Amino acid sequence: MSLVFVFVFCHYRFFRVLAAAQTEKKLRGAVGRICVFSGNTGMEPKLYRPPAEVRGMSSLDRDAFTQTISVPAVRVPVRVLNKVVKSLKKSSIQRPGVPRVVQDTEENADYRLVLLDPHRVTSPTSFSEAEAEALRSFGVPEELHHYELKLTYENLKSEEVLEAVLPQGQDVTSGFSRVGHIAHMNLRDHQLQYKNLIGQVIMDKNPGVTCVVNKTNIIDSTYRNFQMEVLAGEENMVAKVKENGLTYKFDFSRVYWNPRLSTEHERVVQLTKWGDTVFDVFAGVGPFAIPAARRGANVLANDLNPESHRWLQHNCKLNKVEKKVRTFNLDGRAFIQGPLREELPALLKEKVRVHVVMNLPALALDFLDAFRGLLHQEPQCEENLPTVHCYGFSKDDDPDTDVVKRASQSLGFPLEKLCSVHFVRNVAPNKDMLCVMFTLPKEVLYRVAAFTTTGTRKTWKSQLDGSLSGP
């Protein structure tokens, strides 16, 4: 059996190579835009590389990227065209804006040319056995033709354009965060002299992006939002985004929004149930508060940034949960020692499940001391104590241990055996974002602590009705 198989296989390969050689001899010397490939074409590994003249370009000249290259093609009768295209899907050309099928250069209406990937197909023997068998079954000769293809800027990918323009040996970035119509980049120092060109390329290559911004190193010390520089497009920073089935609108230049946190938002919200109460201490524009309210929780949401508070109110209306969310514009500590302290005793007495979300990873762990002795004047309740979800950054070699240690120090109570740590994401080399989840210990909540809330009650009482006057 094995000898028969070897004989048949060798017989097949012999006639296949012979047929290719005869075809090559027959058509050798063909001129014009189509001719037969003869074995190895000697094409460059990066055939699509733009002209060398674009290197160092600081102002985008799209015409400078135009060039003509030769790509392989098979000549296919129109009657079997669709079947051949389907069979050669893996070997056909894959370029933005480049058609797989073009008119026959010999102007024969009964034939078309199927363009192939020049890096994958370099000779008639480059086809897989399945592809070669398909061509034979459809009566298509396994001969390759040259097709002179005009490549333009529109046919190049963003990374190909930037790699050709930026100095050799330097990192090329084409990555960004998408926030509605805005592409948000974090350019490195060596890329800044090309920032406007990079912005224009990103906008050109990503449909729907009409504004490209770069994060500067300037941070608002009060609200922790980064300053933005517009690199290309319109200076419209009011974005509208979808996350987990909900809609959010906000001024991206004046509030904090990170599309990479959508999974984390959903994870925590899934822990809430209908009838729960959620205190969102650093609510932003509502990515925790609004979906929790949609699930049936009663939410008290707070943010110190007036712009975040304004858009939080707007987004509650936008998602039709304004009756389930009360909003506050307070410092996080004042919110804990004001509205949260006022509401918590009744909730514990009624055995309502309570969640406290503290998503300000740069500072939230330091705010945990606000819970010390928070209910020291109230009757103790040992059941159904609040669940805290507190976020933090860590650069430590053991980030889990680090955030638990810092949380324990802030609370004044050891959490090592009472909490769990969830890894959220890596935000920079050697810098992780984590979430510490724990039940607030009664020893912390009811201890007699030396702090005062004088003045805070008057500050937040006027906002208790949570009036929702959106943008």
Automatic annotation (TrEMBL):
One of its GO terms (molecular function) is tRNA (guanine(37)-N1)-methyltransferase activity. This is tRNA (guanine(37)-N1)-methyltransferase. GO terms for cellular component: mitochondrial matrix; nucleus. Residues 1-19 form the signal peptide. Belongs to the class I-like SAM-binding methyltransferase superfamily. TRM5/TYW2 family. Belongs to the TRM5 / TYW2 family. GO terms for biological process: mitochondrial tRNA methylation; tRNA N1-guanine methylation. It comes from Gouania willdenowi. Monomer. Keywords: Cytoplasm, Methyltransferase, Mitochondrion, Nucleus, S-adenosyl-L-methionine, Signal, Transferase, tRNA processing. It is found in: Mitochondrion matrix; Nucleus; Cytoplasm. S-adenosyl-L-methionine binds at H265, D303, L304, D331, G332, N359. Involved in mitochondrial tRNA methylation. Specifically methylates the N1 position of guanosine-37 in various tRNAs. Methylation is not dependent on the nature of the nucleoside 5' of the target nucleoside. This is the first step in the biosynthesis of wybutosine (yW), a modified base adjacent to the anticodon of tRNAs and required for accurate decoding. Specifically methylates the N1 position of guanosine-37 in various cytoplasmic and mitochondrial tRNAs. Methylation is not dependent on the nature of the nucleoside 5' of the target nucleoside. This is the first step in the biosynthesis of wybutosine (yW), a modified base adjacent to the anticodon of tRNAs and required for accurate decoding. The gene is TRMT5. It catalyses: guanosine(37) in tRNA + S-adenosyl-L-methionine = N(1)-methylguanosine(37) in tRNA + S-adenosyl-L-homocysteine + H(+). Gene3D superfamilies: Met-10+ protein-like domains, Vaccinia Virus protein VP39. It is an enzyme of class 2 (transferase). Its EC number is 2.1.1.228. Residues 176-442 form the SAM-dependent methyltransferase TRM5/TYW2-type domain.
